[in-house]
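debug: dumping io for the single-chain case to check the tokenizer round-trip. Nothing else runs in this session.
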Amino acid sequence: MRIMAQVCMVMNLDKCIGCHTCSVTCKQTWTNRPGTEYVYFNNVETKPGLGYPARYEDQEQWHGGWTLDRKGRLTLKAGSRLKKLISIFCNPDLPTIEDYHEPYSYDYARLITAPAGTKAPSVSTRSALTGREMNPTWGANWEDDLAGAPARALRDPNIVALPEGAAEKVKLDFESVFMFYLPRICEHCLNPSCVASCPSGAMYKREEDGIVLVDQDRCRGWRFCVSGCPYKKVYFNHRTGKAEKCTFCFPRIEAGLPTVCSETCVGRLRYLGLMLYDADKVLAAAASTDPTRLYEAQLGVFLDPEDPTVAAEAERQGIPHDWLAAARRSPTYALIVRHRVALPLHPEYRTMPMVWYVPPLSPVADVTAAAGYDDADADNVFAAIDALRIPVEYLANLFAAGDTGPVRSSLRRLAMVRAVMRAHQLGRDPAVRAADVGMTDEAAEDLFRLLAIARYEDRYVIPPAHAEDAGRLLAQHDLSGCSLESEGGPGMGGDGPAHEAVPGFHLLRREALAREDAADASVAGRDTRGRLHLRVAEHPAPGPLGLAGTGGIA
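debug: decoded output
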């Protein structure tokens, strides 16, 4: 048993209101440089819809992720090394700028320089790539709130994969249409196909916390990582010639702080915590022959931090004691393993994703009332799940490789909690019990508190990196500069002259390490003084993206 720790995220889709605050703050922090105009490390998609880039989920077209060969062994869906070598200068599986969108801006200078007249001047749309006028036809959130749904939504790969009977449930009429929001970041997989696809070895998975990063010094811009990622969360910066991706805000994670998208989320739908897993079981789990068993196989990889045997072995293998304590308090472990309401996104890609989702539950009370049922009857509450506006089969294609069992089980538990709390509010005995869905009353109460009223320190349980590792990491990596500190590059010169106006990640890191010497690690992780407060500065502070290739202390 080889025990490793991984930072994991869970998102509760019932709480996402599609405000895109996470996308805006992520882009302002990480991708506001030339060459990244079309790049969204975090984006929010409306489902049903094509997603971003268009139809990224159709692996018959893009050949991302893993598959099994004739002998049942894992192999990249994109093909062998020989096939990659043949197509190294012409990769047919690479999305084009049209699949993303040609980034554009507006000719604001015309507003300033227009001569006086009776007509108000207007601005034209200009391509950020060519500078020419253009007519936008696609974008990162082009389908927001089902915009253009009648023309495009039925091409959603998850709808195309539905059986004929289930496909009839998907209606785009105003009175019967369904939609929900799906925020997406890099999955930081246990078995990342992007890392395996990289011919230069620039993509790597950090041993200490499982975050997948790009070594900017080693990247040669072959872009096989882009085509190899089935979630299309690796991007190519055409200005620097390097691949870039979501870093899971690792400088903040090292300081015991949540990611920027989590910190600024309006709906408070994101949870961050540690997961312990057996690295020796990952490949066997990913190679499960039945795609519908991949969800259960990945659950079998995770380890129980409350198990004394696991805890003792983890400490023997070098997992810090405070990290074990954080793993026991992990909200992600509770939602994924203990309560089993969170599900992985497209487990059939066999990458073993580590960003999981609590599926959306439409208003069960409204459904039962519309059908003439009384939600005081337990049978009616659970039967309503199959009558929801969001077809269970559609959610199964997203989160369970087409198996409706895990989705129904998750929705039943969510419906139970909702029905019990509704009954308590109305002062009557609940029609359903925790035992009806295989839970104890204590577990149901814990699930309610976690999903409904969890405090900041309960949603984000992130142990800071250890100061004793700083010397080793500094010796391994030269943090004095960055190979991309040229004009417009991600390095941007370290802390920069404006770090006093807006707290930089380096400053937060130093403060967190100082606090760690004087306080318990779990308390240091909850210290509100170390949180990032977004403020407007005259000159924005440069970010530390250049450190993404170091894997060291920020």
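debug: round-trip ok. Residues 267-459 form a domain with the Alpha-Beta Plaits fold (CATH 3.30.70).
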